[in-house]
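mind reviewing both lines:
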Amino acid sequence: MDIIIWIVFGGLVGWVASMVMGTGGGLLWDIGVGIVGAVIGGFIMNLLGQSGVGGFNLYSFLVAVLGACVLIAIVRAMRQ
C-alpha cells in the first residue's frame, strides 16, 4: 500500500510543480518528478536543520514541491 501512496503523492507533487514552473510532461513525468523532488526537498530541508518528507501531510507536500521545482530548474538548465 505504501508504494501506491508514494505514486499518488508523487503524481500530485509533480503536477503542482509542473504548473508552478510552467512545464508539462505527462503522468509518468509528473510521478517521477514528484518522487525525486520529495527526495531532493528532504535533502534540502535536512541541510537547513529541518525535517524532510515524513508522510502525507501539508508540510511534506510543500517540501516535495520545493524539491520538484528545484529538479525542474536543474533539468531546464542542463537542456540549455
